[in-house]
């Protein structure tokens, strides 16, 4: 078993996330490397990709003109930007979700299993390449199903009743119409999508996940994706993964990454970054916050209602949080005292220097 330290792992993750070393060619490459960019907050997705790329291509161009990115509900039931050519893989893996079929979920959302099935059955007929606003889509679904009593739930902002359709590849985001979001059918919008084998798709995502957030145990992947632990464990067993001792914990990593990880054993870095809210580096490691620098400060990073704060990261360690100041410059709250060289770099970032 290979033994590594958190210091090695976090410096390696910074490089894998394009937050240290080479930048990515474009936001599509970023989304592929970090296994989807969290996009609940649009401005955060713009900042997260901008930090990691040398390209000036806008997300809107990639999403709605080139259509090489897709915005859809994905990991943990939250909006993500994912590469269009990886979309079938995501759908195959997301189709294993069972949360939305449980009686507790149906009761909580005041919908019956029959009504949900009617919505899913109607979508291929009412949604195509022509973008529909939330209200237009609700009207079309109600006309097709007769479920007038579902209008308020179909039009509410969180899209709860639309998520099961997204997980099955029946809808994704279309171009905004003014201040209104729209939806399109991926099969028409992307020019047809091939089906992927479920186990192969999960294995694909496990490998990609470990290449950005590893080494990790199956439970970490299960939490990140919102997959059943049993399916995650089976995927880890199917793959040819190297066992890694991470400070006494047995974790796993694709063997092709071992050399790069070991090469950081004595290499010094000075990577300092101000990450936006919901940055992938943090959302992929929320269960590890206490281990990666936020001990005693977890509630400042992972806040109520699922909010993930903007963070200060130094060589991979979470060293503080920040928020925009009244003057537009970041107001940084550090976790403890930072070395003078780091304080200088942080000051430079906060002043825009």
Summarize the structure.
With about 350 residues, the protein is α+β, with helices and mostly antiparallel strands.
How do the helices and strands line up, and which of them pair or pack?
Elements: E1 2-4, H1 6-16, H2 27-33, E2 37-38, H3 42-52, H4 59-65, E3 69-73, E4 79-83, H5 87-94, H6 103-108, H7 113-126, E5 132-133, H8 134-145, H9 151-155, H10 163-167, E6 172-177, E7 180-184, H11 186-189, H12 198-213, H13 218-225, H14 229-238, E8 242-246, E9 249-253, H15 258-262, E10 272-275, H16 280-283, H17 298-301, E11 311-314, E12 317-324, E13 330-334, H18 340-350
Parallel strand pairs: 1-8
Antiparallel strand pairs: 2-4, 3-4, 5-7, 6-7, 8-9, 10-11, 11-12, 12-13
Percent of sequence in beta strands: 15-25%
Count of DSSP strands: 13
- Overall morphology: globular
Number of helical segments?
A: 18
Determine the structural class based on helices, strands and strand pairing.
Answer: alpha+beta
Distance, first to last CA: 44 Å
Give the strand order of the largest sheet, numbering strands 1, 2, ... along the chain.
10-11-12-13
Question: Percent of residues in helical segments?
Answer: 40-55%
Calculate Rg over CA atoms: 21 Å
Sheet with the most strands? 4 strands, antiparallel
Mean pLDDT: 92
- pLDDT below 50 for ≥5 consecutive residues: which ranges? none
């Amino acid at each position: 078993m290979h033994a590594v330290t958190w210091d090695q792992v976090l410096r390696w993750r910074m490089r894998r996330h394009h937050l240290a070393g080479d930048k990515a060619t474009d936001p599509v490459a970023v989304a592929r490397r970090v296994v989807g960019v969290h996009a609940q907050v649009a401005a955060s997705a713009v900042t997260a990709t901008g930090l990691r790329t040398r390209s000036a291509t806008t997300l809107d161009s990639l999403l709605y003109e080139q259509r090489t990115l897709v915005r859809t509900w994905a990991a943990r039931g939250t909006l993500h930007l994912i590469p269009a050519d990886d979309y079938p893989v995501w759908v195959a893996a997301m189709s294993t979700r069972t949360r939305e079929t449980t009686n507790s979920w149906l009761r909580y959302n005041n919908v019956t299993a029959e009504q949900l099935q009617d919505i899913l059955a109607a979508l291929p007929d009412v949604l195509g390449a022509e973008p529909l606003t939330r209200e237009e889509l609700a009207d079309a679904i109600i006309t097709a199903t007769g479920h007038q009593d579902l209008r308020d739930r179909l039009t509410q902002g969180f899209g709860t009743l639309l998520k099961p359709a997204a997980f099955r590849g029946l809808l994704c985001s279309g171009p905004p119409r003014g201040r209104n979001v729209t939806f399109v059918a991926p099969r028409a919008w992307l020019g047809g999508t091939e089906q992927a084998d479920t186990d192969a798709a999960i294995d694909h995502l496990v490998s990609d996940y470990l290449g950005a957030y590893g080494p990790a145990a199956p439970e970490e992947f299960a939490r990140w994706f919102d997959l059943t632990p049993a399916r995650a464990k089976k995927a880890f067993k199917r793959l040819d993964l190297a066992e890694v001792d991470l400070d006494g914990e047995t974790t796993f990593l694709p063997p092709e990454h071992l050399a790069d990880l070991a090469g950081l054993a004595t290499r010094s870095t000075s990577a300092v970054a101000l990450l936006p809210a919901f940055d992938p580096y943090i959302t992929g490691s929320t269960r590890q916050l206490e281990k990666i620098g936020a001990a005693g400060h977890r509630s400042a990073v992972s806040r109520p209602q699922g909010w993930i704060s903007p963070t200060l990261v130094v060589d991979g360690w979470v060293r503080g949080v920040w928020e925009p100041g009244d003057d537009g410059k970041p107001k940084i709250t550090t976790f403890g005292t930072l070395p003078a060289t780091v304080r200088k770099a942080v000051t430079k970032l906060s002043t825009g220097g």
